[in-house]
Structure formats: C-alpha cells, structure tokens
Write a structure and sequence with these properties.
mainly alpha; Fe-S_metab-assoc_dom; two-stranded antiparallel ribbon; Fe-S metabolism protein SufE; Sufe protein. Chain: A
C-alpha cells in the first residue's frame, strides 16, 4: 500500500472525477479481506455502505484488512488504512487520524453521505489498536 503522503501528492494534483477514480483505485489495492472476517464485530456502524475493518499482525506492527460493498467508500477506508497501516498499535491508538486525513479535505470533496462514516471508521481502527496495545 502506498503511503498517505504519496497518495496525497497524487490526489492534490487531480481534480473532480479524477479524484474519485483515484479513490476507487486505492480501494482495489487493499489486501483482500476474506468473507469469514466480515462479521458484526468488524462492521463499521454509521456508514451509508457496508464497511468492515479487521486488525492483524502484532502490537509492534499492526496491519489492517478492510472492505466495503461500495467502490468510493472502499477508497475512503483505504485512505484511513493508509494512515495507520503497519504502525505500532500504541501509536495508532493515540494517533490523530482525522488530522492526517485533513489535507484531503474529504468533507468538501465528497458528499456528506459518503463521508459521514469516516469518524466511525477511525474510531473502530483506534479501538482495535488500543485493545491490541493493552494486551
């Protein structure tokens, strides 16, 4: 997965529909998430589309699998994952993920319907990270 910095450099260069295409491409680049992991426990609440996030790896290098049934939403969750992927669980638990995503200005780039679940995606990622860091 590309770094959030690399993604932003490309995103910043693009406009309108090209940004949508980039998000869709990012969603396609996510590691495949087995259907068996798409459970109520991994479901992100409050999203207009179905979104699942599942942590793997160890506390020193947390890795997330994620998926969505909507292409743009899957791209948005890919941005969230890019911000935290392969970092220590304690760092992810304390991280300002919304701040890391601020340069993308998602609220002004996408409809409120598409971005309403972003805080819930971030909350679930941080919740998983805090649980793993404490173990």
């Amino acid at each position: 997965m590309r770094s959030l910095q690399d993604i932003h450099e490309e995103y910043d260069f693009l406009e309108g529909d090209e940004r949508y295409r980039l998000l869709i491409e990012l969603g396609r680049e996510l590691d495949a998430m087995p259907d068996a992991l798409k459970t109520d426990a991994t479901l992100v609440r409050g999203c207009s589309a179905s979104v699942w996030v599942y942590p793997t790896g160890e506390s020193d290098k947390l890795h997330f699998l994620a998926d969505s049934n909507a292409a743009i939403t899957k791209g948005i969750v890919a941005l969230v994952i890019a911000a935290v992927q392969d970092r220590p669980a304690a760092e992810v638990a304390d991280m300002d993920v919304m701040g890391a995503l601020a340069p993308f200005d998602l609220k002004n780039q996408l409809s409120s319907n598409r971005t309403q679940g972003v805080p819930n995606m971030i909350a679930l990622v941080k919740e998983h990270a805090a649980r793993i860091a404490a173990a």
